[in-house]
Amino acid sequence: MIAQLRICVPEKLSDAVMDCCTGELGVAEVSRQRGASVLPPGDIIDVLLARESVERLVEKLQALKVQEQGSVSVSMPELVLSDRADKATADAPGEGADAVIWDEVSRQTGEDSRLTWSYLAFLILATQLAAIGIVTDSTIAIVGAMAVGPEFGPLAALAVALVRRQWPLGRSAALALGIGFPVAMLAAALTAWLSVPLGLFPPDVLERGSAVEFIYHPGPYSLIVAVLAGTAGMLSVISRRSAALVGVFISVTTVPAAGFVAVALVLGEYQKAAGSALQLGLNLVGIVVAGVAVLIFYRLVTKRLPQGEDLRLRRKALGSPES
To answer: How many other CB atoms are there within 10 angstroms of residue 211's CB atom?
Structure first.
């Protein structure tokens, strides 16, 4: 897996950045265009390297404070035909699929955790689908609601925020969950309240034998499934395998539990509503805890810059004597 870095850097830092790039294991190509950047003025450096080498090089660039005076952009070319690139991938330690680019993870989860109109719309639609599946005893509608629900984004962002101590990201994710679920549940309760007098379903619909009873019967496996789903979800975010997230969405009853709480409260089934609320809480906590555990594991196994290396790089860039 090959990555491409485009670095916009002031002229005074250009040589130091070139040293970092050319001296990094897993780098296949480095090119520099002097004076190519007009705003801000400086050089443009392009680097082709193995994905597993990106995080270490980005840490060095951050130590030089390149992001404050210029920019660093990372992209993943779909196809690179180069023997040098193949050799660089082979020389780089680890596997590209297991490599973590922490800023990429933070950005991706941050984008998915914002309280936007589209996020609210998807969550409301998913909860409505779940409510319909509950009153019609349709497991197909329940599974559809699981697939539509966008709640994993804020949950993953919470895990990233806790591990990386990015509190603004955590506040954004908590806001999306704290406002999104109540609004979606209120909308589902309103439609259920309107549906009863219209005769769309009988008031005793929850008292009958149902194929969706698992939603309000939380147990040990509820937490186990949430932990497994959270682990799989965070792994899919790290490895950029978005297709695996669909399986995560339809394995936990987060949205169905929220829909069941709304319907049960409208119909006066308070015990079942409490069970569904507990199911919802177990899923939310289990996913976040699993995500935190996965991220902590990757932080432990990922090679970081040696202590004091950032200071040494800055001194070298400023031309100060090393001590």
So the answer is: 10
Residues 145 and 255 sit within 8 Å (Cβ to Cβ): yes
For residues 194-208, one letter each, b for 16 or more C-beta atoms within 10 angstroms of the residue's C-beta and e for the rest, the string is ebeeeeebeeebbee
Could you write out the three-class secondary structure of 187-227? HHHHHHHHHCCCCCCCCCHHHCCCCCHHHHCCCHHHHHHHH
Residues 6 or more apart whose CB falls under 8 angstroms from that of 27 comprise 21, 47, 48, 49, 50, 53, 57, 88
Binned at pLDDT 50, 70 and 90, residue 209 comes out as low
Count of CB atoms within 10 A of residue 320's CB? 10
Between CA 169 and CA 307 the distance in angstroms is 27
Q: What are phi and psi of 70, to 5 degrees?
A: -150, -130
| Secondary structure element (H or E) that encloses residue 103, with its range | helix 102-112
Model confidence, pTM: 0.82
Q: How far apart are CA 38 and CA 248, in angstroms?
A: 45
CA distance 74 to 9: 15
